[in-house]
Amino acid sequence: MAKKHIFISALILMLIIPSLWLYLNPNRLAKVDHADGDYLVYATAQNYGKSDLFFYDPEKDLHEKILTDWEIKGVSLSKTDRLAISAARDGLTSIFVLDYPFVGSEIKKVSGKITTEYGYRMEWSNSGQLLAYSPWVLRSEPSYLYIWDGKQSKLIAQSKGGFGDMDWGPNNQLAYVDHRLSSDTEPDEIFIWDLEKTVNLSQNPNGTDRFPKWNEDGELAFISERNGDYDVFVWNGSSFDQAGRPDASSFENIAPQLTQYYSNPVWTASGTVSFTGRDLTDPSPQIYDWDGLQATNVSRQPNIHAVGQEWHQSGNWSYFRPYWDEPQTYVLDANNDVQLELKAFDTTWSDSGYFAACEHAKSITDFKWNFQNWQLPKPVIQYETSFNLLFVNGDQINTLANGKFIYAAWSNGNRLSCSLG
User: Fold this and answer.
1) How many Å separate Cα 139 from the centre of its chain?
2) 234, 228, 216, 229: which is closest to 275 by C-alpha?
3) How many helices (H) and strands (E) does the chain have?
4) Exposed, middle or buried, 296 (CB in 10 Å: 0-12/13-18/19+)?
């Protein structure tokens, strides 16, 4: 009987002591692998060589440097807190991946021997498990499209003119554009890779097809040039022909009287399709919203060329006027009323509703008077152009960084690029 009591007492102690230890040491419960809220990662440089990479937590107003003196040419964040950077080391550019919290994390090289002088296009899947990437190349050089699964890279396509406009669908389907050899002889085509095979979505060998965009329901919108006209089409994502390709007869042509070559489709927070278009009565291109029956002008500023629309899940959204000398960004609420204006371009939203944008920052580098032929002297001013990365919270606007170029990405994957190119 005594042995039985001793055994039971020992068993109770075995259960209590670990629980007590964990209670007194809560930080040892688990390693923190994911962020609790929004954060921004951005690379900036004061020249066109070395750059630094930073982490910014807007809730804590915390800045931390991740990398120093890397020649970074692009950043991409997954929704599972994996950071990919396109960066040059020893003259050639490769892709490197870091896991959250990034500072002090192991740096993994993805591209191996697949290097380039110019950098990479990179796009994470919605699951965060797959990274599509393709090296930037000159138009006449061969290019390759790869998928990295966290361990190895798989070649899925080869092109004579490069790949672009990559967008992942909800079921790990990758839509992308093959730029082919020449826009005149072999126009851009849209393809879909579904983890097993690749199919031609646009099936339009005589016209240019660009800017595929998936929504959460697996529908795909894109621009297509057919019979000399540029139209926005929507594929329902579920209709296929006997050859296993998307059924072209199921494509819905939306608002053909408004769409132009610049009518890049963007899905809104409510699931409708927006695009930049122009009615015969519009002095300048406007943002239109197609609800399935009709298109409505939602930018409502006829004298402003409106592009770059982006929606937040709350229904708030933004667009900007793309003039180089005087860009202007407009932030609107769900009723399409302007709430904020700022002199900026290339904007993007975080999940919590924070907002980031690019701002030109000119500085005078030389000033002198030009005397000529006894005329009144004229001032000659030389400027140096750089960019500010703006952080917007409600009506509060702060400058996070300045540089000759800036690449930034939110933790939800949305990103922007402040550069001359």
Assistant:
1) 23
2) 234
3) 1, 32
4) middle
